[in-house]
Each structure stands twice: as structure tokens, then as C-alpha cells.
Amino acid sequence: MTTDANLRVLVCDDHPLFRRAVVTTLEDSGLDVVAEAATGTEAVERVIDHAPDVTLMDLRMPEGTGIDATAAIRRARPWARILVLSVSDDLDELVGALRAGALGHLRKEEAMGRLGDAVRTVHEGGVVLGPALARAVALELDRLDRTLRDRPVDAGRRSRWGPSNRHTALLDRFAQGDDLAAAAQALGLDPLMARTELRATLEGLHLLAEEELIVEAGESRTGGPGSGT
To answer: For residue 227, is it within any domain?
Structure first.
């Protein structure tokens, strides 16, 4: 079992001073920073080379965005745990990162006081979601579920996943400002079960997003809906 003494973190950010502040904060929290990256390309390379337990990902970097890097990392290492660390409040951008496979978001302005706990949360199987992002995730899941329900996709590529009432209820509690403990108590769930279900919700979002890309690519080739032909 990984402990704080050997919990390995990769820091991806193109601003050297901020990156150094993040590294210092993590090391002061007892975590091991195994590498740093300043570009999207470097982020993917460092994950492959160092296999960190958690990757902190800026969204706006040169040589590929953080969303591009997150998607590439999850293709190469599907088990990778990625936490977005960004100044962005753009919900479309943040949902895009979660669609690509990230497991939550921290704003840079609030990060230093929460960074160690957030990294541990993601490493232990949890997610990091604020109210606005939780609400946006719920809307995106509903859209994907409705969009894909009657769209053809190769059975071998279908995710076979859909949001349950429990997933929706957990997102609703987070959208109201609950933390995991409060959400679990409100829904009568064991906290560990609530954490597992919430993590499954974001992994499900990633699966449905991948399925949507497969469907759209197939329709583009055949001239079906959304192909513009």
C-alpha cells in the first residue's frame, strides 16, 4: 500500500515559479515529486517514464493543452490518476478535462492550502469537485446518455455504462455544496461506497465521452448524423 512517504507526484505547469511553489508545497506535505513538465508533450513523456501515482495538470500549456495531454496519458496509461490544477473557471474547459479522464479540479488560487489533501484524495480513489463543476458534470452525463442511447456503435466498443440514480444523487449533493461525508450521510451511504460511486461517475463520464467520439467518427465516415453531408 502506498503511503505518504512514497506517494509519487508529477507536476505539469509551464510557469517555473508557480511549479516550484507547487513542488515545495507537496514536499513540505511529505509527498515525493518525481518529475516536472512544462509542456503537454513533456507531461505525457514524464508519465510514461516515471509512472507517478498522481499527476497535477495545468490546462493551458504549450505543445498541446492539458486536455490533450490528459487524453494521451489515459490512452497510454488507463489507470493514471490526474488532477487538474488551473486558473480556469471555464466549465466547458473543465468538463473537457474530465471527459478526457481527469478526476477533479483545484483552482490555483486556493491550491496551496489544499494541495496535499487533494492529491491524497485522488490517490485513495476519490475525486475533487466543486459545486459548479459537479452540476456541469451532471448535465454532461445526461446529455451523453441521451445522445448515445439510440446511436449505433460497435458492440465491442460500447462502454455499457450509464449514470444510475445513485450517481445522479451524489452529483446533486456535491452541486449543493456537500463534501463526501455530508453527501454520504444525506443519502444513507457508507462513505467508502459513496467515494467509490463518485469515482465511478467520473470514470463513466470518460467512457461515454470516448464512445461519443467513436460514434461521431463512424458517422463522419458513413455520412450519418453530424457528418455535415
So the answer is: no
- The total of other beta-carbon atoms located within 10 Å of residue 16's CB is 10
CATH of the domain at 11: 3.40.50.2300
pTM attached to this predicted model: 0.89
Q: What one-letter code names the amino acid at 173? A: R
CA gap 210, 97 in Å, rounded: 12
Q: What is the pLDDT of residues 79-89, one digit of tens each?
A: 999 999 998 88
Q: Is the dihedral of CA 123, 126, 130, 132 positive or negative?
A: positive
Neighbours of 49 (CB within 10 A): 12
Q: How many distinct structural domains can be found in the chain?
A: 2
Dihedral (Cα; 128, 130, 132, 135), 10-degree rounding: 50
Which residues 6+ apart lie within 8 Å of 229 measured at CB? 223
User: pLDDT tens, 41-62?
Assistant: 999 999 999 999 999 999 999 9
SS3 3: coil
